[in-house]
């Protein structure tokens, strides 16, 4: 989904960042790298947190399977 298609300029360039390792598990003073984050839409981000921090790869696989079923 492209947020700009729905929200116009307000949604251009919008995305959420998800920490692959929960922030609570990070050591004090550790630095977050881009590779530690996953870019997700708000819905996917919420679903991952709702389901006991489901791995991003697991959600991606589930969505790919559902998309293939619908075509």
TrEMBL record:
* InterPro entries membership: HNH, HNH_nuc
Locate the HNH domain: which residues?
A: 15-50
Question: Record's CDD domains?
Answer: HNHc
**What GO MF terms are annotated?**
endonuclease activity; nucleic acid binding; zinc ion binding
Name of the protein in question:
5-methylcytosine-specific restriction enzyme A
